[in-house]
Amino acid sequence: MIKVYGIKNCDSVKKALSFFKKHNLAYILQDFKTDKVSCEEVSSWLKKTELKTLFNAKSTTYRTLKLKELGLNEQEQKEWLCKENLLIKRPVVEFNEKVIVGFNEDIYKGVFL
User: Fold this and answer.
1) Which of 25, 32, 64, 98 is most buried by its number of CB atoms within 10 A?
2) Entry pTM
3) Number of domains forming the structure of the chain
4) Long-range contacts, stretch 25-30, CB < 8 angstroms, 24+ apart
5) pLDDT in tens, the chain (113 residues)
């Protein structure tokens, strides 16, 4: 089963869900706003992808919290991902022990089709 993490109104999440629907692939969506992701889950993703891929330094949340001014190190970035899920780049997709971050149609075709 494909598990998608993100928020429903995110354009990248919408594109990913549209891709899965178009190709009749079953998925489950966990919305960060209604069902927070645990620090354990974030840690498991970081074993399969890089922090710079997962941490969204271009997000509105990042700018609103003025995190650039804090000059966060990697440990601090991880701590922020745990306490503020909206800093996680979206979508995060778990499938067959893989973690795919963001939406790229070519990558999705290679992995899911």
Assistant:
1) 32
2) 0.92
3) 1
4) 25/112, 26/1, 26/2, 27/1, 27/2, 27/3, 28/1, 28/2, 28/3, 28/4, 29/4, 29/5, 30/3, 30/4, 30/5, 30/6
5) 999 999 999 999 999 999 999 999 999 999 999 999 999 999 999 999 999 999 999 999 999 999 999 999 999 999 999 999 999 999 999 999 999 999 999 999 999 99
Task: Give me the domain span that covers residue 100.
Answer: 2-112
* Distance, CA of 113 to CA of 101 (rounded, Å): 17
List strands edge to edge, sheet with 27-31: 27-31, 2-6, 92-95, 98-101
Token pair recorded at residue 34: 């209604």
| Active centre residues (catalytic) | 10
